[in-house]
Design goal:
The structure is a homodimer. Chain A has about 280 residues and is α/β, with parallel strands linked by helices. The first copy, chain A, has twelve helices and nine strands. In chain A, helix 5 links the parallel strand 5 and strand 6. In chain A, helix 4 packs parallel to helix 5 and helix 7 packs across helix 11. The longest helix of chain A is centred in the C-terminal third of the chain and has 30 residues. The interface between A and B is large, with 86 and 86 residues.
């Protein structure tokens, strides 16, 4: 890998650039994306060497060994579509999208054939409360889990092996899993918590926004259970859109569970729920 | 106030004893409760001067100016019942129970009459992840909110005014509100978050307990949204029992909200939910 193009230099994309440099990558790091301001910040931070307007990115992509697609899932899919015809089997495209099944369907159609580029679907479980190149860090992936959901069973190409090597150098742990399983697990451990925090925050905004006592009374439990209510729709729209069925399943299961708990506030059924919940926490402590 | 009896010397009761001493109280602090071990720890920590087995507590209560009832709500109500016939109008009973309407119904029946003791219902919004006298601290109430839900409109008795003075010396802010309103607000900002964390933890324990990937994938969102799953049933049983209707209302509202969100994962309705949730968080930051 002598040249990498990072498409989308927000928090994750720019952090990858910084992590490459910090871990000894001496090749060229180019950047492109929809927003010139973001690209300039990424360049000032040292995350990319050169930046290219989205309209000029085709030639840069064609001349890169690795293309990393960062940003919301549907934007990643747009770039997969756009770049596929320009690239060849000696090149690797990889991504950092939050959902993987939808992306893998596209990858199967557009990549990993004899005369197309290779595609390695990835998902670093890292982030911050706010995004943006300004908050990027070379150490963002240290001790984080970087998941891969490869679509082909064959041996990895040399570039794919090299990319996995860089991810390991970033300090991330890696795991390969099936794309559908990835999306199902992420629905439970990430998307469900987000949707619950959003629903609870929205409900409280409607019911109590004007209650002067609220700020006085609300403590850590409230803060913690609604913190994710601040998450931006712009990112979650694509996750909800591309993982709707697994998310709907988890929401439906929780609705039923809450109804069960509600019907058992005064019965020993409540004890059983607390016992199961205690057990879940104990396993994790 | 020359002598106070603290009934129940767990985290809150023992912290009150330590806070009294730290803020210059020179009278006697007696302690009683169901558990001799807890009482001994409270005494060793300096939270109480003397401890008395529950069976011997009547005489100590009769000879105290203020009796503070700490512990789960139903235990507080048992003590209210037991002590009322032993006490007179020159004495003050106050409590730290988590729900207030149920307690106020008892207070109205048993206290605040011409020939009975006064009762001032209180609720310090303070705590820790674990309870017990060993974790008690004189500073537990600093900057915490200590709510009162007085049942009588008359002027406070001198002892009541003195007790409010001690609470202020502990560093707590205070607010008076209607008992039913207290319970409704606490259902929204404290009991609903707890029940949601319990339901989500119990659900995950059933669905994913054996998934080896879970510990690898679950991040801050999962930890945060299930932390309260570790809360003990022993405390929450009484809260659920004595505030069942308001809690059921909040749970039912959230169930409907989650169903609405589930049906709008791919529509602009999701954007509206995120906008409301963002607004709620913004008000609080």
């Amino acid at each position: 890998m002598k040249r990498i193009l990072i498409v989308g230099t927000g928090l994750i994309g720019a952090s990858v650039g910084l992590a490459l440099r910090a871990n000894g990558f001496t090749g060229e790091i180019a950047g492109t994306g929809p927003n010139a301001e973001t690209l300039k910040i990424a360049q000032e931070r040292g995350a990319i060497d050169t930046w290219h307007a989205s309209a000029d990115a085709d030639a840069v992509a064609a001349a890169s060994d690795v293309i990393l697609l960062a940003g919301p899932v549907l934007a990643i899919e747009d770039w997969m579509q756009r770049l596929a015809p320009l690239l060849g089997p000696h090149q690797l495209v990889t991504d950092v999208g939050s959902t993987k099944f939808h992306i893998c369907v596209h990858a199967h159609r557009l990549y990993n054939a004899l005369n197309t580029a290779r595609f390695l679907p990835g998902h670093p479980m890292a982030g911050k409360e706010s995004g943006g190149a300004a908050l990027a860090e070379a150490t963002l992936f240290q001790n984080a889990m970087w998941l891969f959901t490869p679509t082909n069973d064959g041996t990895p190409s040399p570039l794919e092996a090299e990319w996995r090597g860089w991810v390991a150098k970033f300090g991330a742990r890696t795991m390969d899993l099936d794309a559908a399983r990835h999306d199902e697990l992420c629905a439970w451990v990430s998307h469900l918590p987000q949707m619950v925090a959003t629903a609870m925050s929205a409900l409280l905004e409607e019911k109590l926004a004007d209650a002067p006592e609220l700020n006085a009374i609300g403590g850590r439990a409230l803060r913690e259970m609604t913190r994710l209510g601040a998450s931006p729709y712009s990112m979650w729209r694509d996750i909800a859109m591309t993982n709707a069925d697994p998310i709907a399943d988890t929401l439906h299961a929780l609705e039923q569970r809450l109804a069960h708990l509600r019907e058992n506030l005064k019965t020993p059924g409540l004890r059983d729920e607390f016992a199961l919940a205690n057990q879940f926490r104990k396993r994790r402590d």
